[in-house]
Amino acid sequence: MIKISNQMNNYLVKDVFTPTKPARITFIDRELINDRLVNALQMPGKQIIVYGHSGSAKTTLLLNKLNQLYEAHITSHCMKGMTFNQIILNAFDQLATYYISERTIASQTAVSTDLAATYLAISSKLKSSETTEHTSKEQRILPPQLTPQFLGRLLGAANCCWIIEDFHKVDNSEKPQLAQLMKVFMDMSDEYDALKIVALGAVDTARQVIEYDPEMRNRVAEIHVDLMSEKEIENIVSKGEEALNISFGEDLKSLIARYSNGLASMCHHICFYMCQAAEINETSDKKLELNKTHFETALNHYVADASDSIRSAFDKALKERRKTKHNHVSLALEALCSFGERGSARTSLLTKIRKKVSNYPENSLKGTLQKLTTDEYGAITRFDQTSGLYSFSDPIYRAFALAHFHKNGHSSGNKNQSNIYDKAAFSEFLEKFAREFARRIQE
Ligand SMILES: Nc1ncnc2c1ncn2[C@@H]1O[C@H](COP(=O)(O)OP(=O)(O)OP(=O)(O)O)[C@@H](O)[C@H]1O
Ligand SMILES: [Mg+2]
Question: What are the E-state strand segments in 337-440?
C-alpha cells in the first residue's frame, strides 16, 4: 500500500494522516508509557491491562510495540452481550492460521503437530455441531477439550499474544471468568514465555479485573494511557510534514495541537482535510506550504462529518430516562460550559449549580458526572485523574453545549428542551462554530 520511489520515500496522504486507523508513519513514542509497556510485554507471565479514555491512542501504541517485540498476535473485539465462551471461540477460530495453514505446518515441531491434530479435531467437532444442530456461530457450545489451558497451549506454542479489545463492554457476569483466564495464563508462563493477554478498555477496566481476584494485583501491569500533550500532537504533525514534504508553519501547528484537545484522531482529521483542501495527495517534489484557509476548510469538513455523532452523543446524554425533580444532565453540562476548555473540579461545578438551585444535592452531581463519561450517556465529558478536572471530551461538544444553552436562554432547569435538534438550528450552530474558529485564527 505504501508507495516507495527512488529518491525519497513517497507516501500517500491517507497512509500518513490516519484519523480512523492506527498510525504507522506518524507514530510517536509516548515517553511516559513506553518503557512500562515494553517491560510488561517482555516479562514472562505478566498480563497487561491498558486503559484510558476513548481515542487516547491505546490501540496504536500497543500495535506498534507488538510489531517491534512479538512474533504474532491475534485480536478479539468484545461487544455488548458477548459471553466468555464466545470470546474463547473467537480466539480459537483465529488460531487456524497457525494450526491449519500450510505455512505453519512446514515449520511444525512435534509439540505443535500434536496441538494441530487436536486443533483440527475440535474444529471439525464445532463445524459438525453447527450443521447438525443448526446453531449459529454466536450460539456455539464450547467443546470440553477447549479448556483455558488448551487455548493457552495453542497461543503459547505459536508465540502469539492475545489482545482483548473493549474489555469493558463484556457483561459483568462474564468478567470473573476472564480474570481467571489471565490467572491460568500466568501459571502457564513457565512453559510458554510469550503467553500473554493484553486487555484494552475504558478507564474502569483495570479495577474490574483486579476486583475479581485481588491476588492478581502484583501480577498484572495496569497501564494508563493519558491523552496526548500539545507537544506530542505537534510531533505527529511534524512527522507528517516530513513524510509529505509539506509545511504547516509553527503557528498553525500549535493551533492544530490546541484544538485537538489531547486527541490524536482530531489532529489526524484536521491535517488530512487540510491536505485535501490544498489538493495534496502524496509526498510533494517541492516543499508546499499550507495556510489558514486550508485550516478553515478542514475544520468545516470536520464539523460537518462529526455532526451526526454530536447529535447522537447529545441525544444519549439528554434523553429523559425517568422523572426527576431536576434535569441533572442539563444542569451539569450548563455549569461545565461556563468554565474554559480545560474544565472544572466538581466543587466548582457544584457552586455554580447552587447559584441557580440553592440546595442542589452534591451526590446528584457526583452521579451525573460519572454517568456523562460513559458510552450510555454519549461519553460527552471526561475526567482527568491527574488534574481532578471534568471537561468536555471533544472541543466540538463544548461549542455545541455553549450554543445550545445560549439558545435556550440559560434555562436548564426547564425540562422542555427537545427542540435543539431542529435542522436549521443545528446548521446555524455549525456555521457559527466554524466562524468562531476562523476568528481565533486571525487573532
Ligand atoms: N502514538 C501515536 N502517534 C501518532 N498517531 C497516533 C498515535 N496514537 C494514536 N494515534 C492516532 O490517534 C487516533 C486514535 O488512536 P487509537 O485508535 O489508537 O486510540 P484508542 O485509545 O485505541 O481509541 P479507542 O478507545 O476508540 O479504541 C488514530 O487516528 C491514530 O492514528
Ligand atoms: Mg482502540
Answer: 381-384, 389-392
Residues with CB under 6 A from ligand 1: 18-19, 22-23, 26-28, 54-61, 236, 264-265, 268
| Residue 272, all three cell numbers | 488530512
Q: Which ligand approaches the C-alpha of residue 22 most closely?
A: 1
β-strand pairing of 381-384 with 389-392? antiparallel
Closest ligand 1 atom number to CA of residue 268: 29
CA dist 198 → 34, 208, 420 (Å): 15, 14, 42
Q: How far apart are CA 134 and CA 132, in angstroms?
A: 6
Could you tell me which residues come within 8 angstroms of residue 171 by beta carbon, excluding any fewer than 6 positions away?
A: 80, 81, 82, 83
Please work out, in degrees rounded to the nearest 5, the angle formed at the alpha carbon of residue 290 by the alpha carbons of 289 and 292: 135
CA distances to 63, 84, 107, 374 from 169, in Å? 21, 12, 37, 11
For residues 365 and 353, the answer to whether their CB atoms sit within 8 Å is yes
- Computed over its alpha carbons, how large is the radius of gyration of the chain? 25
Are the C-beta atoms of residues 13 and 244 closer than 8 Å to each other? yes
CA 138, distance to chain mean position in Å, is: 25
Distance 420 CA to ligand 2 centre (A): 31
The residues, any chain, with a CB within 8 Å of residue 217's CB and separated by 6 or more, are 210
CA-based max dimension of the chain: 75
Cell 483495570 -> residue: 206
pLDDT, tens digit (0-9, with 9 covering 90-100), for 10-36: 999 999 999 999 999 999 999 889 999
How far is residue 142's CA from residue 137's CA, in Å, rounded to a whole number? Answer: 11
DSSP 133-159: TT--GGGPPPPTT--HHHHHHHHHHTT
Residue 196 has a CB neighbour count (10 Å cut-off) of: 28
Q: What is the pLDDT of residues 282-338, one digit of tens each?
A: 999 999 999 989 998 898 888 778 777 888 898 899 888 888 888 999 999 999 988
Cα→Cα distances 183→172, 191, 209, 214, Å: 18, 14, 11, 11
Which residue is associated with the grid cell 512446514?
106
CA angle 74/79/83 to nearest 5° reads 85
Task: Give the ligand 1 atom nearest the CA of 269.
Answer: 29
Ligand 1 pocket: which of 21, 60, 163, 268 to mutate (most atoms within 8 A of CB): 60
